[in-house]
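Narrative progress, year one. The postdoctoral researcher (J.K.) led the effort to move from monomer predictions toward full complexes, under supervision of the PI. The following entry was the first complex the group processed end to end, covering 625 residues in total.
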Amino acid sequence: MGSRNLSAELVFDQLQFRYGEDGPLVVDGISEAVAPGELVSIIGPNGAGKSTLLRLLDGLEVPAAGSIDIGGRPLASFDHRARARTLAFVPQFLDRVPQMHVADFVLGGRYAHRSSWSHGPADRDAVEKALRSCDATGLGARLLASLSGGQRQRVLVARALAQEAPILLVDEPTNSLDPGHQLAIFELLANLAAEGRSVLVVTHDLNLASQFSHRIAVMDSGRFVASGTPAEVLTPEVLTPVYGTGLVFGQQPDLAGHPRPFVLSWRSPAP
Amino acid sequence: MTQRHPIRLGVILAALLIAIALVSLGLGPAASIGLGDVLHAAAAKCGLAETMPGSVQVIAELRLYRLFVSIGVGAALALSGALLQGVFRNQLASPSIIGVTSGASLGASLMILAISSSSSFFLVGNAASMGPLLVTLAAFIGAAVSTVIVTAFATTGGRISVPTLLLVGIALNAIVGGAIAAIQRFAVEEADLMRALMTWTFGRLDDRAGYQVVTIWVGLAAAVMVIPRVATELDLFAAGEDDAHTLGVDTSRVKWLSLGCAALCAALAVSVAGQIGFIGLIAPHVLRRLVGTSNRHVLWLSLLAGPVLLCGAELGQRLVFGHSPLPPGVIMSLIGGPFFLMLLMRNRSSVEGW
């Protein structure tokens, strides 16, 4: 497992998608590339098409036009298991929380690697390692339903890590988490990117995106209205047309001491 | 919900089944024929011993057919139910829900009606005529047709919608129920025809023929080969289909395989023994209580639990009522109906979530 190539680029180009035959374009000609080592965030208002974009990239929907390449090959050319070994998806939540133990749940991430229908010690090791990376070692014997929101989110990330995929898609990982856990999740994602993975995160949290992203794309009505470094994107000129008024802009140094923009949702009296 | 010794349970079930089988082989209306005679006849059938004198050999063979059809039918129905419950992630699913069972019954009823109106000597138990074989075939076609209709209605863009499937199944059951009632209305004047139809409606395990044993066992062997291809995958369906897709499961393939196999099993069971309900509901449910929810255990063990349930109920009622037993469909309904209600009471929250 150690020799597995843990880097692959995620590229999508001129992607279009509509629900049904002649519905409106939910995703309307967007392009982006996430290189190994990069964390790219996608922000934008509700209904902008962010979740649909992730469904396209995970192969859950088929684009009407445009291309998706993972590791230099078209997504459509992968069989299901090979896709899951290359690209892992961390959902925002589960459609239903299964009655199972955390360790068994995370073991589900090993499906794409298993040669037979039983699992070996290598799989158990990968599960252990994934739980450790997510600071969730003690949770293995717990029932999934008994976890707190922060624990459940870490377990979802752990299962994606057990897939040992070089590309990670993450859908709104900080929803319903307290500020401490929000930071912890993004630090974890930044570390995973630093290890050489390509990480694409959809988030509503502009400040976490600002601190931890190499680039941010702003999605509105199916299009990218802006894309660039946090300093280029988190500006009144870009965000006010998207989110409306009621934002306050400022700067704050990040861990390395570089200034990063921050954005507050704050109603101020009109000047 | 923990996993408790699936192998040990398998051994216990197998031992139980063998015990039930040996006792029931020795029982029948011809009380003078015991287990020893039946085993001797079985050996003779395999060419290992002298054939028993005429009627003894015939009666002994009938008991063997009864046993092997019962085992095959029990296994097929339990596997069918376990697969459907795995796909639907709902413990209240069973073969009759998607309309397979009633489709098979309609096919059989139509064929019985067709034969009876074209020939006067037809009797369903008459092995000399082509009747039973044709009826079996028609039952299978009925099951296959209803499976195709249900899945076609419930499929859009290569994906099966489970809620739609359930609703289409309900509609199909209603239509078929009406059609069968209409056929029975026409048949009510003719005692033989009515008896033949009833056989299919309430199930029948005695007076089976060799080809019925072959039908159910060959089909079952094919169905068993599906289990290793879907068991792990169905476990990954636990958090929803999209989630399974994310993990690398070819979800539509798993669904097609599982539903096809479930339909095949139910169709075979109905086509050789008529409608016998609730085994597909009860057997997997009890197994889940005993070894946990993993399909890797439940699917395999249902092959033993179904026969234990069906043969056990048959043996039990033979011991209680003597040798003019109630049809197996009736017995299973009397046991299964209350069980189903109990299940509904216990799972009320999940039922309301339907």
